[in-house]
Structure formats: structure tokens, C-alpha cells
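Practice record 12: protein with alpha-D-glucopyranose.
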Amino acid sequence: MKQLWTLAALLLLLGSCNQQKTNNETKDDTAALEKTWWKEGILYQIYPQSFKDTDGDGFGDFQGVIEKMDYIDSLGIDLVWMNPFFESPLVDNGYDVANYRAILPRYGTMADFDAMLAGFHAHGIKFVLDVVVNHSSNQHEWFKQACTSRDNPYYHYYHWWPAEKGEPPYRYSLFDPEGGWDYVESVNAYYLHTFAEEQPDLNWENPKLRQEVYDIMKFWAEKGVDGFRMDAFQFASKDTTWPKFPEGHEKDFIKWYGMRPQLHEYLKEMNEEVLSKYPVFAVAEGAGSTFQDAHDLVDADRKELQMAYHFESVDLSRTPEGYTLSEFKEVFSRWDSAFAKKGWIAIFLSNHDNARLIDRFGNTSAAFRTPSTQMLNTFLLSMRGTPYTYYGDEIGMTNIDMPNIEDYVDVDAKGKYRAAVASGADLDAFMKVLNYSSRENGRTPMQWGGTANAGFTTETPWKRVNENYKEINVALQDQDPNSILNHFRKMTQVRKANPVLVYGDYKVLQKEHPSIYAYTRTLGDEKVLVLLNFSSEKAAIGLSGLEKFGNMLINNYPELEIEDFEVRLMPYQAVILKMEP
Ligand code: GLC
């Protein structure tokens, strides 16, 4: 029997979706996993510099976020993580903090921050603060003091190699091809920097420094923030015997520098001092290089952090050659199984450190931009783990074309270019990869409408607006029931109305299928089937072993073709079906 579901039936079904924010803190006896709001919530990431400018300086600001509060709420998200907005010389766009308790004036005042936070809370949205404490800016008062004398107590807030011992052993730096040590004459010593030279690493081995950080976290928790994203945190504890990094192993730097055993002690301390005292959660950026590392971070019994995110998913598609669906399934299935009973991870495919979702995982052609982005958003919102959506991905914003190094402002891009020059690499090939993969692609101004500068600013934006803003923008997609934006909104409601999508067990089906990613999620008697066509061709999958298909929860096409348990999907079609018990 051939069945065709129509859009009308789908809309009817969605109309009945429960639109409540998820906020329960209960223990489900049938599930090994404790239920909490930060597992049930959907997170939206805002890069404040690029979201909405209201004072005409070309940079986004808090008032802009306040202006767009209803829009943010309309997405059906529950948490917002905002990238750093603290006082900073902006060498790394705010990930170089000069004062952890002060707002960079271009974003507004502390009163504006308070108003924004209150606005989020009034909409039932929780707020996640970016805590950048693996390193500070070299403009932070601590570092300035540290550089005055080895006797200054702040000297010990950082890591040093005294020059009388000769040159420090080579240490890899992520942003600086010259390596991770830099000399300061006034103290005749080299300081450590894992990232740029202007980002000296803080000394977590010093209990005083740790207390300073806990005080900073308490300051923000008292203000009412609901969560902390611990930036680059896997590197915080260091092996202070400074073993020499083996050159040529740059790809393994996480293994070398990440997840030192002491880190867990410090996290327990942080948990005791801060996290357990407030209704907050914390998520670590990076989760080491093994499942054990990641687990130990977020195993509730260990009382450290609550959520981790690993890089294996975003690492899948770093070059224009892209990725294969089989690798994609393998990574997500492996990580899911590792966290099936304990711990919790974030699910994401993009953020401010990556090029755009659709360029890396979808299809940017006019014909497939919409369905492929809808399909990817269906994936993100139907996996176990807290889904993270990066601003602009809810409308399918794309990469920009930046073929020349002079166009780049990012410290990471510039460092990599210097390294490519120094090693005599083929610079044309290098620029091709950079143009595709640079994180600047993901930082262009939000495309609000078809007016000048996409409605982001009335003046010159800090970063060029993508030329395609007249075709890809919020105003247009708001009007179109079949847009990427409205599909995203439907999908957030589907996730909320179906706890099976949050807590249900995940099982991949026909893992070898070359173009369809099929999986079930099961919770008690509830079971749903997710079918995603990752290709630009029609594709079919036979599912004869499964129970009867029930209601369709979402479909990014008007119809779905099923014949005798063979489901035929259109290019990038994404559907979720309930299964009859
Ligand atoms: C993290 C941030 C990245 C930043 C780096 C140094 O990886 O996500 O944007 O450049 O840390 O702080």
C-alpha cells in the first residue's frame, strides 16, 4: 500500500505540539539518566559582535540582542550561550580577557547586560557565560603586574621558564608558529601561551589563581547566569616539567597537552566552591582525546562538570573534500554509545570556530540549500545530547568568499598563514582550504532582512555582510511556511513535545546505507524513526523488520513516499515518524 502524508496533516499534528519551556528536575526511575533542564533545553549560540548593532558603531551590542529578544524566543530555544563580551584588546575577538568583571564598552554597560539577562529570564531562556580562564589577555592587570618582578605575587599566576636555564623546550602553540614561549625582558623569563602570544596561560597549579577564578564565576552566578562554558579548559592544568613537544605531532597536541590528571582535582574543587552552590551547569570545550577523558569530566558521580563537547564531529569536514556519510554516522554513533548510560554531551556541527554548517555538511546550491539545511537541523534536534545551534544556521547562512589573506582579521588564520609561508607550503592551495574552512566564514553579520547591511547596522559593519543577504534573511523566511527558519521552529517544538528525542536510546539502522542516515530513538513504549537523506539524489531504504509506522512528526517535503516498508526519500528529505507499539 502506498501512503502519502500531506503537509496539511503535518501542520495539524504540529499545531498540537506543546510549546512549554522544559524545566523539570526529576529522576526517572526507568532511565539511568537523571533528567534536568540543561539536557532538555535547546541551545542557541550568539556571537554578539555580529548579531545586531543598535548604536551605529558597526558592532553588535546588548541592546541589539534585547531588540531581537522576541525573535530569539520565537525559535523555541531554551538556552543562549554568548561568546565573550568582557573588556579585551580583541586580539582573539574577546577570547583575550583584560578584565573578567567589566563589559567591553562597545557591547554596552553592566546595566545593559543586566537588562539583557533579565530579558532572557523573562522569556524563560537561560544564559550561558563564556569563561575564558585557560589564559588571560596580556593586557590583564595580573599579567602586567607579573611582568614587573619575579617577586610579584602575580608572577605566579602565569607559567614561566627562567632564562638562566637557557631556551625553553619547544612547545606547540595553536596560533603562533613560533611556538608557545615568549620572552619578557623585565623578568628575564619566558611565559607560556597555548594560543596567541597576547594570551598568556594562567597557572592553574597555583591555588590563589584558582580562587580568583572561582570568585569571578561566583560574581556572575550572583548576577543570575545559569551556566558556564569553560573555554579551552582541557588545557588548564599543565605538566610543569615541560616535556619537549615532538615536532611533526601537531595533530596530536590534545593528547600531549589535554586532560592532565590534576585537572579533575581542580574541577572537583570548582564544583564544590561554585557549581554546587548555584543552580548552574558547566560545559567544557574539548573533552580530551579519549572517551574515558570525556566521561570523567561529566560523570555525575565524580562531581566535576555536567556536559562536554568533543571536536570529532566538526573535525569531519575541514577541507573542501568534505566528509563521508559513513564517517559521520560512525562518529555520532560511537560518541552516543559512550554516553548512553552516564554523562551528557553537546550535539553540534558548527560554532564560531568553524565555517558555516551548510557549506561543510550540506549543499549550498540554490536547489538544495533549503532542504539540506533543514535536514541537518533535523539531525541536530533529534539526537541524544543538548543541541547547539549557531546563530544564522537557523536561516542557512553560508560562507563568504575571502580568497586573499589581507581580508582576514582572525589571529588563527594569520598564524596559520605565517606557518604556511615559513614551511614553504603551496600558498594557493593553502588559501583555497582557508577560504573554505576559516572560522571567519561563521562570523559575518546576521542577515535580518534585505535592507542595507542586511539590517545588521546602519553604518559600516565590522565584517563584510555576505552578498547573498537579499536571498537569505530572516524577514523573507519568516513569511514562508516552508523556509529553513520555520522548519527550525517546528523542529524545536517537535523535540519539546517528544521527550523520546531527548532521552530515548539511539540505535542506528543499516549503518552501511550510502546516502540515508536512519536511526531510532526509544524511551519506554515510545519509539520514533528518523530518516535523513544526506544526498542530492533520491534514495530508498527498506525497513521491513520494523513495527508499523505511526504519525509523522516532521517532514521537510510536502509528501513522503512509502511502499511496503520501503521509504523513498527526496534529495535531503528529513522525516521523523512515530512507530506504533
Ligand atoms: C576556544 C575558543 C576560540 C578561541 C580559543 C582561545 O577554542 O572557542 O574561539 O580562539 O579558545 O581562547
